[in-house]
Write a structure and sequence with these properties.
By secondary structure, the chain is an alpha/beta fold. It is built from 14 helices and 25 strands. It has helices spanning 19-29, 48-51, 106-114, 122-132, 160-171, 203-211, 260-270, 276-281, 314-318, 321-334, 425-443, 445-448, 464-474, 525-543, and strands at 9-15, 36-39, 69-70, 83-84, 133-135, 149-153, 187-190, 192-193, 195-196, 199-200, 217-220, 224-231, 234-242, 245-257, 273-274, 288-289, 301-309, 344-350, 361-366, 388-395, 403-405, 416-418, 451-456, 476-477, 508-510. Strands 1, 2, 11, 12, 13, 14 and 25 form a seven-stranded mixed beta sheet that branches. Strands 7, 17, 18, 19, 20, 23 and 24 form a seven-stranded antiparallel beta sheet that branches. A three-stranded mixed beta sheet has the order 5-6-8.
Length: 545
Amino acid sequence: MTPDTVTPDYDFIIVGAGSAGCVLADRLSENGQYSVCVLEAGGTDRRFWVAVPLGYGKLFYDPAVNWCYRTEPSNGFAGRTDYWPRGKLLGGSSSINAMVFIRGQKEDYDDWAAAGNPGWDWDAVLPFFKGLETYAIGEDAYRGNKGPLSVSKADENAHPLCAAYFEAAKGVGLPFNPDFNGASQEGVGYYQVTTKKGRRHSAAKAFLRPAMDRKNLTVVTGAQATRIDFDGTRAVGVAYRKGGKEKTLRARQSIVLSAGAINSPQLLQLSGIGPADLLRQHGITPVLNQPHVGANLMDHVGINYTYRARIPTLNTILRPWWGKLWVGMQYLLTRSGPLSRSINQAGGFFKTDITNERPNMQLYLQALSTLKPKAGERPLLTPDPYPGFSIGLSNCHPYSRGYLEITSADPFAPPRIVAHPYEDERDVLEMLKAVKLVRKIAAEPAMAALIEEELLPGPDCQSDEEMIADIRKRSGTVYHPSGTCRMGPDPANAVVDARLRVHGLTGLHVVDTSIFPNIVSGNTNAAAMMIGAKGAAMILEDAQL
């Protein structure tokens, strides 16, 4: 339906059509009982480079589909800022990400429940994970095969580097793991990705677009929410800007923020929900003094070790013009070839210390290298002019915490993001141990036979001090911000309760990765969609009371 054909009042208003918001829209509108409106600041996901799995490099810096955030300079990154792309279109970041599908570890969710959030333990969330997906390998105790989201395995026509990597990892004690989303996460194996028939299968494709045929669901694009309106402590409406005009919608049941770990706390602060002193500083009258809105910012950070290879890699076919022509025709005609895959074919999880109870580091094998930048894009389709590849890694359980805050009352001004990477020295020491393991993997005969030289950081970087300096110089986000509207039972240290209702207010929920009490172990897109499904179930239960 279009906004012109419906009443301006809805039972539920969802702010943000990202990974969680798309699932919410589907589930809240499914039974036909409630009217639902989704406000999305960005535009359509029907773009060629959105559909092409490897095409996301073209979207990396594109403001038409990307918020293009930058963090403040940090000591942890040797005074550098960091670039944080976030999706600004239907599907949100699921429409521009690398598509890796990782749920996290059982203990992540058990820890959430143990912190006072009943119903968020692993046994409680597993049915929601299973209900989301159709896993290509089939159903078992951990996996589903009747859900809308297509999850495929990245082992088809895998690059020969993968087999060598698995053999080398075995040599350093890492077993082959056939399913990182199964009984255990530890080991190495092929990643699973959200693709279907050679195309990206985003949350918009899987959940929102099928639901948009329903008469009770309205989706408004190009509509940036600017303020939540309150009647006392009850959220009653959302103001938004579309086409240069300010409009307002009112909600009968609830307003649900699913704008992500940056935009959800930003909108709360703009609406008077946040640290009172900050709000007054920008001329905003506090509705609720809640200092934890924007706090507890978590993110995974990572680094690549890059090698010149003795065998052809994806660089070899993607760099020359004739190679581009070949893979382009292959994709257009058969939906196969390099363009149909994620950059991350293989990876793994490991412990930096044998005394750890569970893996604390994630590995990525990328059969191409991109040391030579290209203006305006991440050069996945124009990699280095020699055969190269990278072994990357990122931390699973960072200790460091940051925050974000509005810089003015202008809803179109980006917030100040203070990420504080490596602020906690334990994160630095973990990464130091991790990069040493990467070098051990590269030195194993199976990999060493394929390596001509280490390009970055290079053989001159050997001492602990030199490696730590390199870690600070080259590390960056792996694009998993979360935690800025933390879930917990006590409003003194949390923003939402276990049913995702904002403490101290009524008619207002937050349903996205900002509610993480602690960050999950690995990529966050699967968890975001699970939160959308579970959040919808709880909202519908509460609506019946």
